[in-house]
Amino acid sequence: MADSADGAALFAEHREGLTRYLTRIVGRPDTAQDLTQEVFLRVTRAGVPQDDSSGQRAWVFKIARNLALNHIRDQQRQPNTTAMVDVARNGTQELSAAVHQALDALQELDRDIFLLRETAGLGYDEIAAACELSTDAVRSRLQRARQQLRTSLGDAIHFQLQRGIRLTRDS
Amino acid sequence: MTNNDSDFETIAAFIDSERVDPLALKRALASEEGRNYLVQLVAMREVMATPPLTCLGSSDHPIIGEQRSGRLLTPVL
Questions:
Q1: Which of A45, A64, B59, B64 holds its CA 20 to 30 A away from the CA of B73?
Q2: A 134-153 residues inside an 8 A Cβ radius of B
Q3: Which H or E run includes B75?
Q4: Tell me, what CATH number does A28's domain have?
């Protein structure tokens, strides 16, 4: 194990990806910030494992994933106290809602794998390490998630194709 | 796994910056279906970059099961 300075440096390197991943999975930026802070504490307290950069990244995201899943489970146990608010949606909101709904329909593990890939930019080996799966299982679940999303987001994808596409830099 | 599944996995892996067999990629992209899949994956990635939703209410709303709660959502801009 290395010292907390290594943990802080490792955290700083992945902070942006952690926040993106946590925001998408818990749904609230403020909660995602809290969880990101908790990741920082755990990473600096636990000490970074002696591993290559890929292994360390998988370790950080494994911590984030466990925190997010625990948070979601805690929230599901609590009664829903949120009031309904009637707000008209614009195009972006409609698309956001469609994406959210499509992700919600995925199996939990498939969604997690997909988000680790798409929001955090983890490689297949890193996702496998973070989720304690084989790389083949990651590949297969990722493929299943994409096939499902390809169907459920068909209209949005079609619209995007009409606007034109751009191969974005890997997250 | 069908040939299509295997070809689609190869295309997806390439898009994900994973190392792929170039011959398998060429084969996968030789079919119109494969080429369609490639552009759809790229489009899907752009769609997924849409800002995530946040809830107007006071409590957290984990992505799991949220839509079933009937809460109205708005994106984080």
A1: A64
A2: 139-140, 142-143, 146-147, 149-150, 153
A3: strand B73-75
A4: 1.20.140.160
